[in-house]
Amino acid sequence: MPLIPEEAIPYLENMIYLPMVLTILEKDRIIFERGPFKLKRPYVAMVEGATKHVQTELKKTHIYMKRHSMKVLRGEGDDMFTEYVFFHGGYEEHRRYLNVRLRNRVEELLTMYLAIVENAR
């Protein structure tokens, strides 16, 4: 039986994925601003809108984690796996994530947040 409740796992994983999504969005924003695009504003606006949604979600995650005494630390990593240590209610759980899985999930989230911005227009 896992020591960390199943409902806490999405919040713990958000602390892995959402900072990665923010990093990618920031790098993309810089590329759009500096790139040879004729009309930069629509691209920059879309990236900034997605960034705001991600930041809002990350803030909610931080609040939830603080209220429930939860924490995530990055552990060891290699070419194939990255380990994360989840802390919840005095318990500690080590989980290894396949790097390809991390990349694919971040790509899914990026697509989702960009779609949210597009649908809001």
Structure overview:
A hairpin with a 2-residue loop joins strand 2 and strand 3. The chain is of the alpha+beta class. The protein has three helices and three strands, in the order ααβββα. Helix 1 (9-34) packs antiparallel against helix 2 (41-67), helix 1 packs across helix 3 (99-120) and helix 2 (41-67) packs across helix 3.
What is the total tally of β strands? 3
* Range of helix content: 55-70%
- How much β-strand is present in the residues? 15-25%
Distance between the termini: 45 Å
Detail the topology: elements first, then pairings.
Blueprint: H1 9-34, H2 41-67, E1 70-77, E2 81-88, E3 91-98, H3 99-120
Antiparallel strand pairs: 1-2, 2-3
Helix pairs in contact: 1-2, 1-3, 2-3
Pick out its properties:
3 strands; 121 residues; 3-stranded antiparallel β-sheet; 3 helices; single chain; alpha+beta
Question: Quick gist of this model?
Answer:
This protein has 121 residues and is of the alpha+beta class.
